[in-house]
Amino acid sequence: MFELKALIFDVDGTLADTEKDGHRVAFNRAFEEANLDWNWSVDEYDELLSVTGGKERIRHFLTLRLPEFLHEQQQAGTLDELIKKLHARKTYFYTQLLSEGAIPLRPGVKRLLDEARDQGFRLAIATTTTPANVTSLLESTLGKESIEWFEVIAAGDIVPKKKPAADIYDYTLEKMNLKPEQCVAFEDSSNGIQSSLGANLKTIITQNHYTETHDFTGAAVVLDHLGEPDAACTCIAGDIKDASYVSMEVVKQLFNS
Ligand code: XBP
Ligand code: MG
User: Fold this and answer.
1) What number does the ligand 1 atom closest to the CA of 13 have?
2) Is the minimum distance from the CB of 211 to ligand 1 under 6 angstroms?
3) pLDDT (tens digit, 9 = 90+) per residue, 105-162?
4) Which of 29, 98, 187, 189 could join 93 in a cystine, given CB atoms 3.0 to 4.6 angstroms apart?
5) Distance 240 CA to ligand 1 centre (A)
6) Which ligand is nearest to the CA of 129?
7) How many Cα neighbours within 13 Å face the side chain of 90?
8) 164 CB less than 6 Å from ligand 1?
9) Total-model pTM
10) Side-by-side strand order, sheet with 6-9
11) d(C-alpha 187, C-alpha 114), whole Å
């Protein structure tokens, strides 16, 4: 019988609702600055989110919407450089937005992190986003010192295959020297849960606007958010007994079930 030792968190959509008003806006600013008339609407971004990773998402957009432009850039040997430059500017605009306090944490996130730390649980992050984006989010919402709360921050291009591949979780577990049976993952999307389940991790889902239609088969529980003592969460699949929010007690119950 394994004991719960650590919580591993996804970032975008799980710690905070960063996609619609953060990443999407930053991509559009980078396109505008480069005099490209590309503008990703809320609905179009929904489709583009099927591909994780910002650079990969730009390439996916070009494949779907501008195949001729993509072909020309490929022929000229300039495609990779263009995507790299756009993405670097996108990261700049995104971290700027976060430093202005544009994106708060989702309900219950800070409370659960505090509770986990108080009880001596180990914490880590496993995300496909760029490392600078993670530190910016943590700094702007929890303060500079919160970066130290996470023993491992596994992010971006650190592994060759991004989610839905299990690589980022496998990497995190290896760095922490833990087995999947000793951890719980927190995710918000179908790519995320495929990755965490691929690493054999019990997974708690908090869905959001972009992921409420996703398939979460295999999740320990699917919730609208983690909840707060004065703001109950709703269970979409599975249950948290008579609790109205996710405390460490609930996490342990789900871990043992
Ligand atoms: C979310 C992603 C990321 C962000 C953009 O991953 O797919 O690609 O949308 O970030 P997760 P970058 O939910 O695993 O955190 O542009 O830095 O890739
Ligand atoms: Mg996510």
Assistant:
1) 13
2) no
3) 999 999 999 999 999 999 999 999 999 999 999 999 999 999 999 999 999 999 999 9
4) 29
5) 29
6) 1
7) 22
8) no
9) 0.96
10) 152-155, 122-127, 6-9, 183-187, 202-206, 221-223, 235-237
11) 18
pLDDT at 68: 97
User: Which atom of ligand 1 is nearest to 11's Cα?
Assistant: 15
Told to judge if 12 belongs to the known catalytic residues of this protein, a careful annotator would answer yes
Q: How far, in Å, is the centroid of ligand 2 from the Cα of 64?
A: 22
Six-digit token string for 111: 């409370």
Please confirm, yes or no, whether 170 is among the known catalytic residues.
Answer: no
With a 6 A CB cut-off, is 163 part of the ligand 1 pocket? yes
Determine whether the shortest distance from the Cβ of 54 to ligand 1 is under 6 A: yes
Phi, psi of 117 (to 5 degrees): -65, -45
Tokens of 45: 């971004």
Q: Is the CB of 12 under 6 A from ligand 1?
A: yes
Burial 160-193 (b: 16+ CB within 10 A, else e): eebbbbbbbbbbbbeebebebebbbbbbbbbbbb
What tokens were used for 94? 């995104």
225-249 tens-digit pLDDT: 999 999 999 999 999 999 999 999 9
Structural domains in the chain, sorted by start:
6-17+104-256 (3.40.50.1000), 19-99 (1.10.150.240)
User: By alpha-carbon position, which residue is closest to atom 10 of ligand 1?
Assistant: 129
Distance 80 CA to ligand 1 centre (A): 18
